[in-house]
Structure formats: C-alpha cells, structure tokens
Amino acid sequence: MGADEFSKSVEMGLKLSKRIYYGKDGTTSMTAPKPASMSKTLSTCSTMSSSFKLPDKHHPTGPMVYAVITDPNIVDNPDITSYQPHVHGRCNPPALIPLQMHGISMNVECYLDTAFVTVMGVWYLYCVTKSACCDCRIAIPLGELGSILDFNVETNRRSYFTKLIIPEQEKDSDRVTKTDGFMMKRNTYTLKVPQVEGGSMIHVKVRWSQKLLYQGDHEFCLNVPFTFPNYVSSSDKTITKRQKVLLNVNSGTECNVTCKFASHPLKEVRQHAGEASFAYEAEVSKWSTQDFHFTYSVCSNETVGGLILQHPFPYDFDQRDMFYFYIFPADNNFKKDFKKEVVFLVDISGSMRDAPLENTICAITSSLTRLDQEDSFNIIVFNNRIKSFSSSLEFATEETITNATEWMWNDLVAEGGTNLMSPLKQAIDMVGKMGESMPIIFVITDGSVDDELDISNMIKCNLVYGSISSPRICTFGIGSYCNHYFLQMLAHMGRGYYDAAYDVESISDQLQLLFDNALSPMLTNVTIDALENLKSFELYPSRIPDLLYRRPLIVSGRYQGKFPDIVKVRGLLADRSSYVIDVKVRNKGDVNLDMICAKREIDILTAQAWLDKNTCLEKMVAKMSIQRGVPSEHTLMILDQNDKAKPLLKSVIQDDEKCSKLMNRKKIRLRNVCVGFGNLKATAENLPSGVEEEKLNEAEKLVRKAASTCYELLDTYGCLKCLSKVRNSQISLAIAELCAALACLELLDCCCDLCDTCSDLC
C-alpha cells in the first residue's frame, strides 16, 4: 500500500466509521449514513475509493493504529450493538479506520549525536463488533534517519514481539508463515497485527533510533513526530487523556546542558555535568497537536572534543575495547574559509523526471549562491551520455551562477539510462590541479549501476589519503532503487559524507543540508596521534573525514593497547597552518557505546562486506546485529506471536478450520527494515522512486483475483486435494495465477492457509 492509497483508505475508513452508534449519551453527530451511500458491489466500492483526491491528507504524523476493514458489515460499536443495514460487497482496497487512543507516553534517551525513542500507547478497537475480528495496522513515522529497533504489541488474546534472526533460521523454521511490513514515504514504517477481536485494547510499545541534528554553536535538535488528529480522541467523555514525555540527555561532555527550546512544557528534574533530565506529564483535553521539538546546547565557546573508552560486555563476541571520538565545532573559532573547487555530478536518467530533478536543481542553485567568488564550480549531468555546464571549472561570479541556473532549467531533460563511471572519472580529473583549493565532488543519483565494484576500485586508486588536493566525495541517494551501501562506501573512501532521501518531498531539504555542511570545512586532514601508539586499532569509518563547521566529527572503533590521558588531534586550517586540539580521554560507564555505535558500525561493515564480497564479514555483521538488537541486511526481523488463550471468537472468515489456521500463525517476517543494495532492474527500466509501492498493490490485486477464482472452483470441487486430481485448464490457470501473485508479495508460504496439500500443488 503506497502513501497515496493509504490516505485514501483512511478517508474511506472515516466515512465508514459514521455507521457506529454511540448510544443516547454518545456523540450523536456520528450517525449511520444512508444505505445508498455504501457500495452495492465490489467494483462500485473500488471505484468509490479511487475517487478520493486527497493524497497525504491522512498520512500519520504520530504513532497510529488502524482497523483494516474489508467487510463493512462488521463495523459496529462493540459495546452497544445497533441495527446496521447490510452492505453488499467488500472494500477494495481495505478501508482503514483510525482507532481511539486511550493513552500515550514517550521516553527519549539522547546520547551524544543519537536519540533512542520509545513510544508506548493504548488504542481501543471501537469500530468492530465483538462477534468479529479484523487485522489492525500500526503506522510509526520516524524522526531524522530513523531506524526501527523493536516492536511489542499486546491484545486481549495475543502478544507479539520482534526479534532478529539470521536467514538460515528462517529456512529451517516452518513457523514463519507470512511476510508483512513496509516503509512508506516520509520515513513511516507500518506493519499489520492479524485478527484482533472487536472491543480489544491494543497496547503498543515501539522503539527506534534517530539522529540529532547539529545546528552549530554546540546546539543539538531533536524532532519526533508526535501530532495526533482529533478523530483519535474517544467519544467517551469519562476517559481521562494523559500524555507523558521523559527526556534524558547525556552529552558525553563535562559542560552544562541547557534547554534552548521545547515544543511541550518540559520541566527540568535533574542537572549534572554533561547530563540533564526533563519531564512533562499532564491530563489534556486533546492529544498533542504538534510534533515534539527539543533543542539543547552544550555550553562552551570553544571547540569541544572528547574520547570515551569502554570495556566490552562479557557477552560481546569482539573482546577488544571500544572508543568513541567526537569533536563539536564552534562557529566563531576561525574566520578564514577554504577556497573550494566544487563539481555537482547529477543523474538525469529517465527516473529523475519531474520532481526529483526539479528539487535537485533548486538545491544546487541555492548552494551556488553561497559560494565565494574565489571558489570555482562545474555541473556535470549524466545518463547514457555526459553533458556539462562548462568544459572546465568556472569562478562562482554572479553572472556565471545565473548562466548555470538558466542552463539547468532550460537544457536538462531527464531521459535515458544511468552510467556513473565516466562522469565520475571526468569530475576527478577536473579538480585538484591547483594546490590552493579543496576539491569537493557531490554525486546525486536515484539508481544502481552494474559496475559499482569497478567504480569503487577506481576511487581507491585515484584518491590519495592525507592530501588536501585529493577530492572529497559526498554522495546522495534518492529512493530505494540506488545502492545506498555503495554510496556510503564512496563517501567513506573520499573522506566525505553521505545522505539520502527516500521520498520526493524530502529531497530538497536533505540535499540542501548536505551541501551546506560539506561546503563549510573547518579542519582538513584530521589525525589522532595516539592511534599510532596502540597495539592495534580499527576505525569506523576507516578514513577520518574533515571537520565541518555545521556537523560534528565522530569516529568510533575497537582497539588493543592504552590511550594516554590527553590525546592530541591535529588538522590543517584554510591558511595551511596546523591546528592542535587537546582532547581529554575518559572512561564513562553511563554511556553505552555498544548501543550508540551499533548502527553506524553495522552500516560501515555492511558496505565493506559488499565491496569485498566477504562472507566472513557478513556473518560478523549478522552477529553484531543480533547481539546489539539493530537490524541489518544480513539478518531478518521476525514478529513473534504468543497466544494467551486457546479458544477463539468467531472470525469474519466463515471457514472455521481456515480461520483456526490463520489465528495460529506464530511468526511474521517484516520486510524493508533496511535500505537494501539497490535494484538494477528498476534502474534499467527507469522506474521512479515509489513504484515499488504500486507494484505491491498490483500484486495484492492479483492475489484477490486469483483467490476469487480458486474459491469459485472450490465451491465446485470441494477442496484443493480433490481439485488437484482434476485435469482442467481453468483450474491450472487459477492455481498458477494464485502462486504467481503470492510470489510477487513474497507470501508463497500463505498457501498453507488454503490447504494442507498446498505444497503438492505449488
């Protein structure tokens, strides 16, 4: 289900919820609609749903739970039954009725540059009669670079929790019976809880990690989606609405933490050197109507640095000690800027048509105006061929920037395929000839190419580590079809930075942030003297990037040996003079480095394993993923079901035996928890980002169509076992359609719900 279809389904669900009767003392405005307003047939219902033109209007802006309604006749108040006119047909796609929220609390732990957010909420399935059950869909919009860590869900009769396994465990298990979960635009993860009884309380606890935005001058900003629409409020006026927020900050420094801005009325409850706690709890008339924003500063006028040490935990398979090195830059330290040579390398293949290319041009145009006239730049665009604004670098004068802007808007047409090797070589050859400037190459693409390993090896050979004239490479991936690990690896090798936008709406802001950060270097060729005196060490990333004015420099790693009490960090300023920062080394037991560094290190090692085709490193990543509870490309996230009671209520599915099998599912595989290694086929076909959602919808339609045909045949022949003995082209075609559709959805295991002998047919 894509974001647009999601919004349409919620719109239809809100219309459907008007059937619910709340009693004489309830909300009388929500009366049942006339029978004629409901669809009479399946095709009519489908047509009605497609007529809504309100994309994203009901996209979740906070944690939400929805009832998934395919049969409108089960919609009723579970506490007060009422007469409801019968509706012929089913909702296609299913309607989503937002559930009433009875409580919400959030606990946030901010460590250094990372936040761990835990949200706990209670929702009431108020819209399904007690004699029926339905699936419920949970939607969680995540914050900046958010990554799901785990789910816990509890209903009246079942509980669910997530765990990570290696793929071999899934193959060996006959209990993994379904695949669900996907990422929608705006970084919203959604999954489905099967068959919840009407009138149930649904307790959800979800935890994710996200990045804190650095705003300069030692200020960090936390943004968490926490806005709830009015229609999640209960119609029962006796229910107390309480919302609670707990926030702990551990800056990793010894400087005071000061709250600069808070969207909700937080009260400081604890203040210690480098640490602070804040709390908010209140009974409210309506749920939060704004996202949770919190900005704090680590008070200091100078550049702040630190090196934190920690021993490994006893269960850690890597028994080397851990370290975490950081520098938080101060804007007022240095006034002289680096002279820069900038090349924007932009993908203009057919998939970049319209909004992706337009947003990219806008971001480049804005960044050009921030260059000094002594800086030089060029713009190279590529598809199957290469086109450039100029044959050489041009100074960033007002006239040249105007000409470049007009050239981009007038001459660039998104068409053709994707070929990155040649334009990247051309960009590298174009910069670094003048030793006085720092060369920076930005690579912006939404696709994968089949020579990514060759490109990576070419970069290794052409970049000289430790040279200021060696190009810094910053990469930006758009959508899910590009290989984000390849782009991360390019940035690591080029001592640059990587960022991504997974939907069109966020391209401009994310790309502009990358440009602003990378174009403001403060120190280059950064080295840590003490590393050379250790017995051994491993850095993540392996090459230390430059220190930027608007982004903290963070490096973590493992080591054997001993650090001194003070570590000297060296770098070059814009005037080529050396600058030394004395960094204090501390052992901090209250900072869990294992947790803070987990995602960064797993992503870096995953990219390295991909580049080297190293299966041993892949297995190590899988071990780290399971040990630290952070999803990876080499592990699977499973939603595990535990039944609290054996007896089951009557389901909306008429076949009791089939319902029993459905309700006894034990494990559900969750997809799209990580970004993946790209899609060469989608890139070759120039599919724009988001088409993967449309393909998912098409596969669901195939399932419905094929299943409908199979059920008609079952009515004739009795069961699939008897059906398999009949030689009939219609039967063969129907089963082939069903299996193909299930394969499209990665749901072939669901055949077991149709018949015990499905394995013989498929």
Notes on the protein architecture:
- With 762 residues, the protein is α+β, with helices and mostly antiparallel strands.
- The protein folds into four domains: 3-297 and 632-670, no CATH class; 301-333 and 524-596; 340-519, Rossmann fold; 690-761, no CATH class.
- Helices cover 26% and strands 31% of the residues.
- The chain contains 18 helices and 35 strands.
- The strands form five sheets. Strands 8-35-34-7-6-11-4-3-14-17-16 form an eleven-stranded mixed β-sheet.
- The longest helix is centred in the C-terminal third of the chain and has 27 residues, at 691-717.
- The radius of gyration is 28 Å and the shape is globular.
Instruction: Order the strands across the largest sheet as they lie in space.
Output: 8-35-34-7-6-11-4-3-14-17-16
Number of strands: 35
Q: What structural category characterises the helix and strand content?
A: alpha+beta
- The count of helical stretches stands at 18
Number of domains: 4
Query: What's the helical proportion of residues?
Result: 25-40%
Q: Mean pLDDT, rounded to whole units?
A: 83
List low-confidence stretches.
Answer: 27-55, 646-663, 693-700, 723-727, 742-762
The main pleated sheet reads as: 11 strands, mixed
Shape: globular
Determine Rg (CA atoms, Å). 28 Å
Beta-strand share of residues: 25-35%
Distance between the termini: 26 Å
As an assembly, this protein is single chain
